[in-house]
Amino acid sequence: MLNRRNMLHGMAAGVGAAFGSTLSPLNVRAAAVKTAQPRRVIFFLQNQGFDPLTAIPKGLQESVPLSGMELAEPIRALEPYKDKMHIINGLHGLHTSPSHSAFFGALGGYRGGIGVPPAGETIDHKISGLLPQTILPHLCIGMDSLPNMRSRPTLATLSATGPGQALFMHSNPNSLYEMLFGGISTGDVKRKYEAKSKVFNQVERLARLNGKTLPAGERKRYETYVNGFRDINGLRERLVDVSDHLKQFAPEYDDGYTNPEFETDWHDRLLDIGIASLKSGIANTLTIGSGRGEIFGAWQGLGVEQQGHNLGHINQPDNEIWIKIRQYNCRMLVKLMQQLESMPEDGGTMMDNTLIVYGSNNADKQHTNGANWPFILLGNCGGNIKTGEFTQMTEKRPINALYTTLLHAIGSPVDRFNMDNTTAATYDEKVGPIEELLA
Amino acid sequence: MSRTATILGLVAIIVASISNVSAESPPDFESFAEPFLEQYCLDCHDSETKEGGLSLEDLGSVDSRNAGLWKNIWEQVALQEMPPRENENQPEGIDRVKLSNWITGELEQAMKDQGGFDSHHHPTKANHLAHDVLFGEIPAGLEPPSTPARIWRVNPQEHLVRLNELINTEPAYNPSKPGLRTRGDHIPWNIQGEIKVYYALDRITGQVGGSAAYAAAITGFPPILSAIRDPGFKNYPMLYSVNGAEATQIARQAEEIIRFMAYGPLGESFQFVDKDKKIKRPAKYDGLDIRGTTESLVYKKETLRPITPVYDLMKEEGVSIEKLKAAVDYLFEALTLRQPTVKESETYLSLAQGAIADLGKEDGVMLGLVPIFLNRDALFRPELAAYGVPDKYGRVMLQDQELALAINAAFSYIVPDKNLKEAVGQGRMKTREDVKREVKRILADESIRKPRVLQFFREYFDYDTAGPVCKDTKALKRAGGGDEKGYYRNMYSMTASTDRLIELILQEDKNVLRELLTTDRVVVSTPKNPRDSPARFYGNFDKLVKNPPRPKKKEKLTAAQLGIVELPKGEAIHVRVTQVKFLGGNPNRTLTTLPADQRLGILTHPSWLVSHSDAMDNHAILRGRWVLERLLGGGIPDIPITVDAMLPDEPEETLRHRMRVTREDECWRCHQKMDPLGLPFEMYNHVGMYRTTELGEPVDTSGEIINSGDSTLDGPVTNALDLINKLANSERVTQVFVRHAFRFWMGRNETINDAPVLQNAYHAYDESGGSMKALLTSLVTSDAFLYRKVSRHGRNDNGVPVKTH
Known about the structure:
heterodimer, A: alpha/beta, Alkaline Phosphatase, subunit A, 2 domains, B: mainly alpha, 4 domains, three-stranded mixed beta sheet, three-stranded antiparallel beta sheet, 34 helices, 43% helix, globular
């Protein structure tokens, strides 16, 4: 019988076995043939837009290899990774209403806006369901000002599991740490953890019971509440099952969690947890919302005194504030790559099986119609994405075409992502992936 | 058959099929929608005429592929944008309603598996139901009003106030200073815009370090449940559930709350002294910088928090079942506002006992009581009408406990008062008369705080978002807003002042809306240094001294030296401020008056003006939209996705000039309804200061009311004061206000079936001389408030026969 408990045990056992062998030096040496395959994708969206003058090496107007080109100052930290990089310019998101932010539309490829519910599953969640299964499998983290992260430690603005089904990102690293690594304990702590699990299973049962008498029209809304407990409890069970494995990857729980001086202390720790979730194999997709998909955000830890909406009014190129923010993004990207490169996998490293998609939920700038939406891809996704290239789109293609390409790259080809033919007649000149991106 | 002949035939079909709006004979595409399109749309939108490139000739019924187009048709027809006003061939209002209902019903079905369609239920679309239909002759054959059975998630403030009740003893009502923070009030934000409930703040008598260290040392928590941030009504039941992340946070906070209820503030024994000066810290603290730590705080010895059964349980050794049960029952009632049933009490007792068995008393109680915080009714208020026999329309009146909680929630965030509880216990909570009795009693009792009423006015006027409007530093300085720190403090502080002015007008309860729109009164804080005074924002920008002399050390420039208006002395009044004194400002304010030639009512106060501005300038479109929707009952369809809704970036041009782009053909159709209503407010700059010039030229404050639906209102206006004067005396505007009150208290958009409720409410308000109490009594005793539509007919959802009381 395939019930939830059995399924979870099976999944957990699979993860444990897989990592038990991967981490063993003996097994790494024994892996004679590289068998790279897409295993994880990271989406990193900086709010307030990604200006093409920052994204593109100076003067480039046509597609060329990146070798010999110099990256713009704000992203120069990525210079050593040019051979793993693909810059794309000229995609559009005219249909996503991206002025201020397309919100769910940025990863959904559909119309977004403040308070507009997601019209469909977003690409990050879609991919998380198609990649080799992991425990979470999709983790979303969001970075903002400290007061915002404290007062709204979870927020759903970017990712969705389906129409009307928003996926929450985590912004309080303390809560997130406890959620993922609370089970790594022994003795008294373990006992408490187990007692808590028992209580929460009862809470779920009661919540479900109380939903039975609701009118049909209200059940769906109430399901969100019940499913919240199901997710909490399900996750706890799965994490407990792989706790020995997790211990090797849990970040050090230091003062930066409990006594942050700046918001960047929390940003860094959220990233650390994100990296640990990827390295430990509990997540196959990580979505990072720097600015949490909105038009606010703060980076006082970088010496940026201004915060919030005003940052979006600044012209990004050559601006000191934006150089700092973009450099900070790049340090995060480099850390992600270095950490994944340090982990052996399939005869190579984790990075070989990874793709990072860097861009903005705001196209090219805060006040934009989305006519240009630059992206940088890092990693070749198991050899399926062409790297070391700059691609200037010459045809009218929406961001949905990039997402279609990602689905091809992970081995789940489709003709279009979240765009029907009627809409495509106006917004997409071609069908299928962006060929220039595929290896 | 020619199209003309077809139309002639179809007119008869339409007339026959739209004779009334009832549940009988639901219309379909062939019998209703297609003839409607034929008669009113195809002249301009068939395959030959194709105006605007749009042909509806082969549209067909609603499906997922043409849903976007049908949604547009719904908005255009419902908002009376189409057929064009100049056409003589116009459908009757009731026909528009019927087509709207048909389209939205079909869209719900067609989009069921693709994210659903519920736009028509959203508060922003409530005006899509034509005003004249609601306030005209009531169509025959309407089903009587009711509201679907539902659960209503408690709002974030309500939840926070309930949690606060567990840990803080808020001050009792003080009739001599009714504005001060009192038990049952909402939790106000501080002058930096943060809303928090704090632990043991009332016991702190001293601390080490300055205000920053204090802020770091004290502990509190913000609202846990989420709410949308858009302007307008935020608390429809359809908008919210509780997600897993929120549940996790509630559970985490619950443990802290239970611990505090049991033990009070955590601290070393030396921190608890009668007088701050008597504190003797142990030697280990010598030379140690403890600023910002919990050890830096000094507490009174006296216990000030509520002493509850949780305290009783934990103060003695061992676990007494009676005391554990008392704690369970106490928490259950405090969180759900009702007593638990025997079964519920047993269930939560058993859970707590299990946790104690696993972890021992200390940790077991802390964990074992958490599930009560996550009980369904602690987070949702059910309006299920689960017993009672439905009438022939499937309606059941709320009764007993459920009815009492619905009435309580109409005004209050905390547990029902003794009288209301007694009414339930004595079986006097069953009839409309019972409701009327309790509503009148609650409304007459000033000591029963009514944060829901104030929240209505916040959401109706949207005056409470001035603080969060992020201003561009240079634009702020140019507008005379002063330094950023002082500016934001003033803006956050102004919300409390406007709250108080509204409460004052509510207390008078005469011509409430007109008074709010036209009062010359204002509540302001009066800091010692005129430089920090909010009076700056009520002053005249032209008279502001742009480069005041530099004050000598410890010298304060006078208001005259700064060019800041000096308002009449006025009288003392008090407002609610946060518990944290240095973050809360001063609760002492002045009630004074504003220059009659410059200001008129709340719409001319900086709190409203800045709430409807942006980082760089005024937001005439937002202001115009507010006037259109909240006063005139008009609406704007969603912006087509192809529109790049941007004004040109021309900092040296006036906003009026930059808004020329909205006069382009495709924009003006909608913008003519908003822009001329917002531009009269150009007599103020974007921080709310009055002005007569802009960029060195006389400021143009002209505007116009266009196609308002009341021809006596239509026509040019010279400035905001002229506009407000016209609107404040309008019957239509009052009726639109009543519509908004209906939405807020019913938690849903009105339908044609609610027309009698709305008309009665309007008459109650009008005939009582503009009494909000009369309006509320009418609404809360209406069928729409009292009756729930249930799916059963003598049976519950599971098919089990229902019991009757």
